[in-house]
Amino acid sequence: MSTNSQDRVEMFRTMVRIREFEERVKRTFAEHPGVIRGHTHLADGAEASIVGSIAAIRPGDQVMATYRCHGYPIALGTDTTAMLAEIYGRSNGLCGGYGGSMHLADPERGFLGTSGIVGQSIPQATGAAYAAQIRRAGDVVLCFFGDGASKQGAFHESLNIASLWKLPIVFVMENNSYSVSVRVEQEDANAAAGEPLATKAKAYSMPGVTIDGGDPDVVYETVAEAVSRARAGEGPTLVESLVYRLSAHGNSIAPPGVPLHYPEHEAVTVFGDVAEYEAAKRGDPVPRFRGALVTGGVLDAARADAIVAEAADEMQRAVDGALAGPEPEPADALRFVHA
Amino acid sequence: MTRELTYAKAISTTIAQAMRADPDVFVLGEDVSAGGPFTTTAGLVEEFGAARVIDTPISEAAICGVAVGAAQSGLRPVLEIMYVDFITLALDQLVNQAAKAHFMSGGQLTVPMVLRTQGGAGQRAAAQHSQSLEAWLTHVPGLTVVMPSGAADAAGLLAAAMTAPGPVVVVENKVLYFRREPVPDPVEPIPLGRAAVRRRGRDVTVVALSRMVGEALAAAEELAAEGIEVEVIDPRTLVPLDLDTVVESVRRTNRLVVAHEAVRHGGFGAEVAAAVQHAAFDDLDAPVERVGAPFQPIPLSPPLEDAYLPGAAEIRSAVMTTLGRVPV
């Protein structure tokens, strides 16, 4: 099971687009102060994991995620102007400005949304998988969450149910080694014992694998195999995808009027571990995959540069379109309480 | 046509009717295929099979989340949380997920799920199996909250809940489960958000929830013998609340008592009292009286539980207070 050259170039393109999108979110704090309030959480560093996973599903499949959610809809084909307008709280946003950065949803493309409460989208993804099972169309659910979420009861309850009912779901745990400012070995019994977090799968009698989430080919192959199992009615898989988030957990939190910004990564600010962070930067999956494609003769440098330039143009249009988007009407604040 | 059913049988009958009509309706919860402790889902697995009547693990957070996710994917889950006391374990899914998905997605997602649960004391079940926690649920925008007081309403309100576009919580009452009354056959939906006037009266309005409706009617019967005519209103749906019916009544009686089994402190009666005094301040001749349980957990031993539990006597006393008479 492997992707052809064209698919790999498309994976690279999507990784670049996600990276550029996240860079523009970050730059917004400096270039357009006050335009983003509240919380944003960026996917930079997890692009290979996101893109490799979503390359393994087909239309009709569904995705649920956490509040660190900008990458998935981009990979599913959601319009980036609508996404950025949502993050800016504009009425042309994907969710009309009601949800913001943490609550993107695009059910038409299979993106069932997120939970801002850690781990709590996992049961819902499990329920979507039950719906897929009962409909017998062979659809599968990809459920993304972080390492921190595996400390929630909802994670354990859901894995038990998914395995017991043989639901068509793949649990993709993006282990970025940090829960905000706490390192995984400080809060996870497996990690503290030197074992992978995928060990947890054993407790629920499902396959558990730990992979290099910085390599989209590896992620694709692993998730595609898990998706095949799920489609065949053989039940769930837990994929622990090792990634490193290249930004801090989120932007700073400050009272209105105080400019927000992205602080340095917690490895530096909390642990003073500059070497760890510098090593993570050297392993950045976007240039790494570019290098692999160029070295392998799949992509020449000029075409790679063109892909980067196209992504930059797209995201500039997204910024322009989002900034030009109207603020919602105050009278609309009370809509959508009840369906 | 009607048939005489218990409240519990009215529920299983209504669910079966909905499952026959709509293949997307399914039931999940703990011990549901055996009928649950109160037989409210008895007989369903025999007719509809284990794929649509699912015994879940004891995992309230996950099963509520499964219901939310299945509803977002187009199914119509009817989830049972066996005791309302256990809803604490499912509250994130209910409060942060089910109630907000439609809103946060700008109307893209809908969560057409029914969460059935039951509360109330009177079965010597102690502090963790007897509570009335509906006020918590009424405080969450996005949830519809229903409290049926009899078999016919248990059927009709549930039928409406199962076709509602968003999440509905139906809080049943364990003491009412085995009381019988005529129920329409087939079950007809009762629109959510419409109160029922259970007894007409000119002197005092009593708004009573769930089991307290029967208690209010008993008190009204006693008071009628003393020449006091009490109007008893059963809101049936707490959210949305049919305030118009209550206010129209208070404009005639000029006196209001609100009665529920939940602790009075922070109870739903406070919301009704505040809403009525605002809408009909000039019509009130006495302060609104609230009947509810004392602000303490529920004791086990029969003499203690009986002393704790509010009922007809407390309602009668509150009615007398609004009339300026010393309760006997």
Explain this structure.
The complex is a heterodimer of chains A (339) and B (328). Chain A contains 14 helices and 8 strands. Chain A is α/β, with parallel strands linked by helices. Chain A has a single domain (5-322), classed as Rossmann fold. Chain A has a 6-stranded parallel beta sheet with strand order 2-1-3-4-8-7, sandwiched between helices. In chain A, strands 5-6 form a two-stranded antiparallel ribbon. In chain A, α10 (216-231) links the parallel β7 and β8. Chain B is α/β, with parallel strands linked by helices. Chain B folds into 2 domains: 2-184, Rossmann fold, CATH 3.40.50.970; 196-322, Rossmann fold (3-Layer(aba) Sandwich). Chain B is built from 12 helices and 14 strands. Chain B has helices spanning 7-21, 44-48, 60-72, 91-98, 101-104, 134-138, 151-161, 211-225, 243-253, 268-279, 302-308, 312-322, and strands spanning 2-6, 25-29, 53-55, 76-81, 114-119, 144-146, 168-173, 180-184, 196-199, 204-208, 230-234, 237-239, 256-263, 289-293. In chain B, the strands form 3 sheets. In chain B, strands 3-2-4-5-7-6-12 form a 7-stranded mixed beta sheet, sandwiched between helices. A 5-stranded mixed beta sheet of chain B has the order 9-11-10-13-14, with helices on both faces. Chain B has a two-stranded antiparallel sheet with strand order 1-8. In chain B, β13, α10 (268-279) and β14 (289-293) form a beta-alpha-beta unit. In chain B, α8 packs across α12 and α9 (243-253) packs across α10. The mean pLDDT of chain B is 97. Chains A and B meet through β2, α5 and α6 of A and α3, α4 and α5 of B. Chain A: Residues 14-330 form the Dehydrogenase E1 component domain. Chain A: Its EC number is 1.2.4.1.
